[in-house]
Amino acid sequence: MTQYYVGSNGKALGPYAVDALHDMRIRGEIDPSTLIWNESMGDWASYGEVFELPPPLPPPLPPPLPDAAAPSAADSPLADEPGDGWSQAPAKPWFRWAARMIDTMLLGGTASFVLGFTIAATATNLQRTMALLENPLFSGIMVALIMVPINGLLLHASGTTPGKWLAGIRVTRPGGLRLSFADALNREFQVCLRGLGLGIPLIQLFTQISAYNSLRAQGFSNWDQEIGSVVQYRPESGWIVARIWLVVIPLFIGVVAINAANR
Question: Residue 27 belongs to what domain range?
Fold first, then answer.
């Protein structure tokens, strides 16, 4: 059986049988320029010279098959309603503002009332506690922070909130995929901080103006660009405008009446 020595780093290794030599070539341990020799050869020669047509390398193996597990909720698209025609442009800052106000009055007001009632019921000094809860600065910050987990959970579960649904707005990942809960929570915190100024009246004015100008100029909010979320809109219609007003007016009257009763 013919055997060959292999030159490697100035040393002669082997001898190796021809089949073993070819296996080394296939594994990439030697290449066509590697020097080989046996007793029938006058001098060292390259593998490629001795074996004019070296055996082909084996074809690459396919990548591992993906797991057969069902896709996670975050990777599943939100169900579209027939004929909705979602689109990203043009941006609708006033619709978004109205949706946020509806959510704040409806969800934030309800949640803050429940939380305030619970705090008051367990307080040791009711007078001081009520004075704190009725403080506009404290109540504004409390409502703004309460809205973060509430809206985050709703956006993760359905891509929308009551206010956004009324205004024909949804928030998703590209391709209509659901936001993860972490991304939805992060987005709502960024809105609370950079869009609503933590509910602090004077700061809120400046942050809302800045967010409005940015949305009008870019067509998207900075936090959506950073998180990778996409805000989509249904085609504008008289029905969408009408139902926003049908909800906003009673809510606004209710808030005014409650504030008047508390004075």
Answer: 3-50
* Rounded (5°) CA angle 196-156-214: 35
- Give the H/E segment covering residue 128: helix 126-133
Instruction: Flag whether pLDDT at 211 surpasses 50.
Output: yes
Tokens of 167: 């205004």
- Tokens encoding 239: 């029905």
Q: Are residues 122 and 209 in the same domain?
A: yes
Report how far residue 157's alpha carbon sits from residue 172's, in angstroms, rounded to the nearest whole number: 10
SS3 (DSSP) at 95: helix
CA distance 182 to 73: 13
DSSP 215: H
CB 86 within 8 A of CB 232: yes
For residue 82, pLDDT beyond 50: no
In this structure, what DSSP letter does residue 86 have? -
Tokens coding 196: 């609503």
Tokens of 231: 């805000």
Q: How far apart are CA 111 and CA 181, in angstroms?
A: 20
Residues 109 and 238 in one domain: yes
Q: Which helix or strand (DSSP H or E) is residue 15 part of?
A: strand 11-17
Q: What is the pLDDT of residues 104-136, one digit of tens each?
A: 888 888 888 788 778 878 878 878 877 877 788
